[in-house]
């Protein structure tokens, strides 16, 4: 897996800002980057959330699910991407989520954040709103 560290003059204010930077850089390397896994060192959260897993379980998941590119934004935010163009068939676990700038970010459902699910119309606790 290729690894890139995106140095920052100042640490991103939040996860969303860091993710935008990571996706932008991933688009320079992959034609259709998909977030497979991530970790936010500030909040100590990661995706996908794997019950009973150790703190590096997110990374193991990313590596074992076709991770091709690992991007770190500073020392606090880490993302593993794969290439959607390599999928043999449409992946039903793939979600397209608009960011604050109106750009779509692709992520596997398990790697989407709660905020992403809300943007897609899911209610907290499950179910789709209308």
Structural class: alpha/beta
Distinct helical segment count: 3
Q: Can you tell me the CATH topology?
A: Dna Ligase, domain 1
**What's the mean pLDDT score?**
81
Low-confidence stretches: none
Order of helices and strands: EHEEHEEEEH
Q: State the end-to-end distance.
A: 40 Å
Helix content: 10-25%
Radius of gyration: 14 Å
Assembly type: single chain
Name of the CATH architecture:
2-Layer Sandwich
What's the number of extended β-strand segments? 7
What is the overall shape?
globular
| Major pleated sheet | 7 strands, mixed
The tally of structural domains comes to 1
What is the CATH class designation?
Alpha Beta
Strand content: 25-35%
Verbal overview:
Strands 1, 2, 3, 4, 5, 6 and 7 form a seven-stranded mixed sheet that branches. The chain contains three helices and seven strands. It is an alpha/beta fold. A hairpin with a 4-residue loop joins strand 2 (33-40) and strand 3 (45-47). Helices cover 22% and strands 29% of the residues. It has a single domain, classed as Dna Ligase, domain 1. The protein starts with a strand and ends in an 11-residue tail after the last helix.
């Amino acid at each position: 897996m290729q690894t890139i560290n995106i140095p920052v003059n100042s640490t991103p204010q939040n996860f969303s800002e860091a993710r935008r930077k990571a996706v932008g850089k991933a688009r320079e390397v992959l034609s259709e980057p998909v977030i497979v896994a991530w970790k936010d060192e500030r909040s100590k959260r990661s995706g996908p959330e794997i019950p009973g897993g150790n703190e590096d379980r997110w990374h193991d998941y990313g590596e074992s699910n076709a991770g091709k590119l690992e991007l770190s934004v500073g020392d606090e935010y880490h993302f593993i991407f794969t290439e959607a163009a390599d999928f043999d068939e449409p992946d039903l676990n793939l979600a397209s989520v608009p960011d604050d700038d109106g750009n779509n970010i692709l992520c596997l459902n398990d790697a989407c954040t709660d905020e992403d699910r809300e943007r897609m119309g899911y209610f907290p606790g499950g179910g789709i709103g209308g």
